[in-house]
Amino acid sequence: MLEKIQQTGDFLRKNVSKLPKVAIVLGSGLGGLTKEIAISESFEYKDIPNFPVSTVVGHGGKLIFGTINGVPIMAMQGRFHFYEGYNMQEVTFPIRVMKNIGVETLILSNASGGMNPSFNIGDIMVITDHINMFPTNPLMGKNFDELGPRFPDMSEIYDNELIAKAEVIAKKNGIKIQKGVYVGVSGPCFETPAEYKMFRIVGGDVVGMSTVPEAIVSRHSGMKTFALSVITDLGIVGQVCTVSHEEVLEAANKAEPLMTTLIKDLLLEI
Ligand code: HPA
Question: Cβ distance 222 to 100 under 8 Å?
Fold first, then answer.
């Protein structure tokens, strides 16, 4: 694994003009941010050595380098989900590579189902903490001390300073944001009413199928992590209704301009 990370890092060092300190994973709801990037280099995942290969038609994915408002960034357009069949090392490989090329701050975004009864579809939530309900953990197996400690601290997995900055930015721009706990599950099923109820009882505000593995690896490797979630459906006790992928995407797209504003302003303060 170490060799692969180094190889991929070397490839990017050789082919990218300006290596960034900030990386963004564009989940559902933040794809539009690519329009804001002054792109210097863009690589299809299939052309990057050691990157997992997507088997789903139309889900190619791109690693983009450039600037937003003059700030150098790299962005993953499309991520690797555990439910697609990738193992946890594959899901989190790009995060290891980011660290390898000098990234210090990781911004994650995703779509989720709201369980907190005060949440609505289209709300944006700043993730303050998470609960790992995946059946495994990306740090299972041999630990490479070069990458991070065997037993990493997770008492502040999402950076409090960045959360506070995002709150100020939201207020300044008149954007309503929620704050809360993200429960990460494998998927690909959406939850049953009893599952939404259980995840609420154990302390979750929203539930989704990504982000947790990436945040764990980001923290393990010593990067600052910040994550936003757009609530695309509701799993609130008594209000659970049917959910489809299309509805999730539609709700995520609607929240996209606000997410974009938040991230653009936040980049100026990192
Ligand atoms: N559950 C899990 N993942 C999701 C949901 C949900 O309700 N909505 C968007 N991603």
Answer: no
Number of structural domains the chain divides into: 1
The CA 42 to ligand 1 mean position distance, Å, reads 29
Q: Decide whether any atom of ligand 1 lies within 6 Å of the 243 Cβ.
A: yes
**Pocket lining: 191 vs ligand 1, CB cutoff 6 Å:** yes
- By most ligand atoms within 8 Å of CB, the mutation choice from 79, 81, 243, 254 for ligand 1 is 243
Atom of ligand 1 nearest to the CA of 185: 2
**Predicted confidence pLDDT, tens digits, the chain (270 residues):** 999 999 999 999 999 999 999 999 998 767 888 889 999 999 999 999 999 976 655 456 899 999 999 999 999 998 999 999 999 999 999 999 999 999 999 999 999 999 999 999 999 999 999 999 999 999 999 999 999 999 999 999 999 999 999 999 999 999 999 999 999 999 999 999 999 999 999 999 999 999 999 999 999 999 999 999 999 999 887 777 777 888 878 878 888 889 999 999 999 998
Unique residue bearing structure tokens 């990157």:
51
Determine the structural domain holding residue 158 and report its residue range.
Answer: 2-267
Is 0.85 topped by the overall pTM? Answer: yes
164: how many CB neighbours lie within 10 A of its CB? Answer: 11
Q: How is 155-195 classified by DSSP, letter by letter? A: TTSS-HHHHHHHHHHHHHTT--EEEEEEEE---SSPPPHHH
CATH classification of the domain holding 208: 3.40.50.1580
